[in-house]
Specification:
Keywords: Ligase, Phenylpropanoid metabolism. The protein is of the alpha/beta class. The protein has 17 helices and 27 strands. It starts with 17 loop residues before the first helix and ends in a 9-residue tail after the last helix.
């Protein structure tokens, strides 16, 4: 057997998600691949268009390993570019469309992008970003993405070398796309979502992306040819790698330029949508709608969704699956795999169980919660907190040009996530907080997530976030930021005292917010995450709470 324990040329061909679309063009050739307003493409169309575009990209002197960026919303071009750019051997970098020009400029300088595809509504933003690049820094070429449903000027802006559709039309449909030479060739570069002040460039390989895309499909149990509504930004970890995964199952991708609850409900009904993804804030927005005529499966990940929001969403006909992943894992690697016997439990208990993040997905090697100091596994009692650590094939290759940060989080054979959680006796994990979001009050570690879950139970609360506010006696105390529901245009009358009293009946004294700040809307990243760093700064600037006692 020793002579056979080595790979050979036939069984070691590199894994790549690019092969998904090649197969889709055969199996689902005449089935719709992309629907956008009045536009519909088939999978044969999409494969051909991607190859044509890839051939045109190579004519712009883009070579293997170069970074090509995309600054565009969830439109057909963004979907196609995930395949077309990487078919050239280049690395795709999708940029958050809600970033400011300065941050985009920093990203382009850091990744040395050679080419940027830009949506017509974002041309001024990219021009501002380019103008901020240092004089000696190479400036990327720009390609304009126009919209077929908008009246466009026939004159190409002078800063742009071509238009998207012109590149597609002039490309070679028989282009022999470039396959990776190794599993470990990079395919995508994503920047962390901006909840910290210094986003880092996360590099993923063809192998890792292939694995997480297949794994996410399997975990969710997605059937062939679902109708997938793009409510999750494609720039967010490549749509949790579902951009590539939807080609596996021959899905119909319904593209939306912007997220609006009424538009989403119209799309669900018009296209008979079966699947969609979104952060918990999306659930909260959808939970205010009307009951659905059919079941829609929705995958949510990010901050743990409050049980109250889960209850309201599922009561409308959404089937919610809760999962967990990071930019550094390229997609979802932990999911709350549902057990049939849980269906017999009361609805409130089902919601509590569903709010847990769950167990590792099939392709993940291992998941644990450890003491960050000793590295030892914590007790599986659902109480003892530790840091969530992961290992498996879809963990990032590292942070671009940042070996120090890479070494800090990848150590001892694990990726240290920075998330604080507990492991329950049944092996299901539950996030309690980000390590930086844990509030330490009087020596007690306080989970902001638990306080937020209680706040969401209040009938007047729309959104809630809790951070620490400096306190001269306790060190810090919980400070709640709350937005309220507006009842038929009337100004809400809920008071600070009412919120605090509500929490006192449901939380230990030290966890009850000592300060409540009402906001019309809480600050969020473009992926729907509440920007707690901004709220922490706000609370810090409020100064110390005085004579606060439990």
């Amino acid at each position: 057997m020793d002579a056979l324990n080595k790979p050979n040329s036939a069984n070691s061909a590199p894994l790549t998600p690019l092969q998904f679309i090649e197969r889709a063009a055969t199996v689902y050739a005449n089935s719709p691949s992309i629907v956008y307003n009045n536009l519909t493409y088939t999978w044969a169309d999409t494969y051909r268009r991607c190859r044509q575009l890839a051939s045109s990209i190579t004519r712009l002197s883009i070579a293997k390993g170069d970074v090509v960026s995309v600054l565009a919303p969830n439109i057909p071009a963004t979907y196609e570019l995930h395949f077309a750019i990487t078919m050239t051997g280049a690395v795709i970098n999708t940029i958050n469309t809600r970033l400011d020009a300065r941050t985009i400029s920093v990203i382009l300088k850091h990744n040395e992008s050679k080419l940027v595809f830009v949506d017509y509504q974002l041309t001024r933003l990219i021009e501002q970003a380019i103008s901020l690049l240092p004089e000696l820094c190479p400036h990327p070429k720009l390609v304009l993405i126009q919209d077929q449903d908008e009246s466009m000027s026939s004159q190409l802006p002078k800063e742009f070398v071509d238009t998207y559709e012109a590149m597609v039309e002039s490309g070679d449909p028989g282009f022999n796309w470039i396959r990776p030479q190794s599993d470990w060739d990079p395919i995508t570069l994503n920047y962390t979502s901006g909840t910290t002040s210094a986003p880092k460039g996360v590099v993923h390989s063809h192998r890792g992306t292939f694995m997480v895309a297949m794994d996410s499909l399997l975990e969710w149990g997605i059937p062939k040819q679902p109708i997938f509504l793009w409510t999750l930004p494609m720039f967010h970890a490549n749509g949790w790698s579902y951009v590539w995964g939807m080609a596996v199952v021959g899905a119909t991708n319904i593209c939306l330029r912007k997220f609006d609850a009424s538009v989403v409900y119209d799309a669900i009904n018009t296209h008979h949508v079966t699947h969609m993804c979104g952060a918990p804030v999306v659930l909260n927005m959808l939970s205010k709608g009307k009951p659905l005529s059919h079941t829609v499966h929705i995958m949510t990940a990010g901050a743990p969704p409050p049980a109250a929001v889960l209850l309201r969403t599922e009561a409308l006909g959404f089937d919610v699956t809760h999962a967990y992943g990071l930019t550094e894992t390229g997609g979802l690697v932990v999911a709350c795999s549902w057990k049939k016997e849980w269906n017999r439990l009361p609805v409130t208990e089902r919601a509590r169980l569903k709010a847990r993040q769950g167990v590792r997905t099939v392709a993940m090697t291992d998941v644990d919660i450890v003491d960050p100091e000793t590295g030892e596994s914590v007790t599986r009692d659902g109480v003892t907190q530790g840091e969530i650590v992961l290992r498996g094939g879809c963990v990032m290759m590292g942070y671009l040009k940042d070996p120090e940060s890479t070494a800090k989080c990848i150590k001892n054979g694990w990726f240290y996530t920075g998330d604080v959680g507990v492991m329950h006796a049944d092996g299901y994990l539950e996030i309690k907080d980000r390590s930086k979001d844990v509030i330490i009050s009087g020596g007690e570690n306080l989970s902001s997530v638990e306080v937020e879950s209680v706040l969401y139970l209040h009938p007047a609360v729309n959104e809630a976030a809790v951070v620490g506010r400096p306190d001269e006696f306790w060190g810090e105390t919980p400070c709640a930021f709350v937005s309220l529901k507006n009842d038929k245009g009337k100004s809400p009358t809920t008071t600070t005292e009412e919120i605090i009293q509500f929490c006192k009946g449901k939380l230990p004294g030290y966890m009850v917010p000592k300060t409540v700040v009402f906001k019309s809307e809480l600050p969020k990243t473009s992926t729907g995450k509440i920007q707690k760093f901004a709220l922490r700064e706000y609370a810090k600037n409020m100064g110390f709470t005085v004579k606060s006692r439990i």
